TrEMBL record:
Residues 1-19 form the signal peptide. Keywords: Signal. Pfam families: DUF6175. This is Uncharacterized protein. The keyword Signal applies. It comes from Mesohalobacter halotolerans. The keyword Signal applies.
């Protein structure tokens, strides 16, 4: 066989195999958890919200363990690294997330974080694969209807989907039914996941950054700073433009009390002490925080995060 022809065949495979893969985590969908009774109530600053109780679901549902294990295996076979959700849950502190609050040291103002946000913050997967399934019975035959949704863990945007119903089978083993139903969809599904991650690698990760003020701070975002006496809000907007990838972001809202940036593209990695490290929303927000603490602003501030893709900076105190 012609050597050049062999190289032409092998080279694309080598390039693909060396491409960096996104980190994934398979999660049962809210619908599946609610349908099967695995929920808990979370007090979100006085408003009760019903959220999935993942811990109890993994402890009590053998079917969930089998399904997640099968999807994990199928993704790993295609070269995608997986975070095991059950293991991540076990490693989270036993202290109840319902009582975990952040507050301003000087004013006592509080910002809540839900247990789901706490889980995603610790796992730090790039993409969440949300899984829903049901088993259909027709006489001795069984089939499985499934829905896989690939969701960007930072922006919460759906970036890939695969849904369908497998052919009827005499098999009674859930993993076998699942594999028979899903296998033909995995190629296009993983391809879309990789395409999305390649876009992140080139154009940056999409996050949201908000700057607010504590109500006891004597300044606001319309205060003037610097030799040119520009409004603080515009100076912050200039910083975001200069530090986001290709200056890509959107100013959603701006008042004297807050400014909200959406679709802020931040780099996936940054250099620190000669080593490449992963960039996340909190790290990017800390750079803006440092900018505001330095001259000519000298503004004390506090950073909080919600989930992976949102950070808020509070001006005036810690």
């Amino acid at each position: 066989m012609n050597k050049l022809y062999v190289i032409a065949l092998i080279f694309p495979w080598l390039m693909f195999s060396q491409a960096k893969k996104p980190t994934l985590m398979v999660v049962p969908s809210d619908n599946w958890c609610i349908t099967n009774g695995y929920t808990l109530e979370f007090d979100n600053q006085g408003i009760k919200e019903v959220i999935p109780d993942y811990k109890r679901a993994f402890q009590e549902s053998s079917d969930l363990l089998l399904v997640v294990s099968k999807i994990n295996g199928m993704m790993a076979d295609r070269g995608f690294p997986l975070k095991n959700m059950e293991s991540e849950i076990k490693s989270i502190s036993q202290v109840s997330a319902l009582d975990a609050m952040r507050s301003s040291k000087s004013t006592g103002a509080e910002v809540a974080e839900s247990p789901v946000d706490q889980l995603l913050n610790q796992a730090k997967a790039d993409i969440i694969i949300q899984m829903t399934w049901s088993v259909n019975k027709s006489g001795p035959n069984r089939s499985i209807t499934f829905n896989l949704q690939g969701i960007d863990a930072y922006s919460n945007k759906q970036i890939a989907t695969a849904a369908g119903t497998g052919a009827p089978s005499f098999s009674v083993e859930l993993p076998v039914l699942l594999e028979e139903a899903v296998v033909s969809y995995m190629g296009p599904f993983t391809s879309r996941l990789q395409t999305h991650f390649d876009d992140l690698f080139e154009n940056g990760r999409e996050v949201s950054i908000t700057v607010k003020r504590w109500d006891d701070w004597d300044g606001d975002l319309e205060s003037y700073y610097g030799p040119e006496q520009e409004e603080l809000g515009f100076l912050i907007e200039d910083w975001v433009a200069e530090n986001s990838v290709n200056g890509r972001f959107n100013t959603k809202d701006a008042t004297e009390n807050m400014i909200v940036f959406e679709q802020v593209r931040i780099p996936l990695y940054f250099e620190r002490r000669g080593r490449q490290r992963a960039m996340d929303t909190r790290r990017f927000a800390s750079m803006l925080s440092r900018f505001l603490r330095d001259s000519p602003f000298n503004i004390e501030n506090k950073i909080t995060t919600r989930g992976l893709g949102e950070a808020t900076i509070y001006l005036g105190s810690k």
